[in-house]
Amino acid sequence: MPECLAHMDAGIARVSESLPDAPLQEIVLTRLLLLVGGHLLNELELNLKPFGLNDSDFRTLMMIYTSPSGSATPSELCEYAQQGATNMTRIANVLVKAGLVTRASSAEDRRKVVLSITTAGKRLVRKILPPLFPQVHAAFASLSASDKRTLDRLLRQVAVNIDLLTHPDPRP
Known about the structure:
It is a single chain. By secondary structure, the protein is mainly alpha-helical. The protein contains 7 helices and 3 strands. Helix 3 (55-66) crosses helix 5 (85-97) and helix 4 (74-81) crosses helix 5. The mean pLDDT is 90.
């Protein structure tokens, strides 16, 4: 990783030579977020592969698992899992086929589909999560509790800024 970081820094320094107005610190932070996120995602995917799941499948399963009712509509899941309708249909099919969720019509509105977690789905979540905990702890091991709170606050601010960029306030 140190070699990768050094290569990144050198490349960004070269960009600054040809584009002096480039926002260097923001570019570095963006690259670091992508680098860290990519590595975390790769590790997660490796741990999910033996269960026949990928990140989007697991994220969707976790959203249903953590829902107070243990269920959600595909449109709710699309919004919160950041997935398109077509991919959410694929994800739902994977989870239903695996017996992790059921698909049924809503009791309130028969036109709506509701995905609900099954006992097998709950059992799988409880099987997958604990082995991930040591890796999560290790990734943040060198940070103090205060550092973690600060990182949480800052990343949430960046998330809100990105949301404002992609979903500008329509009010005049």
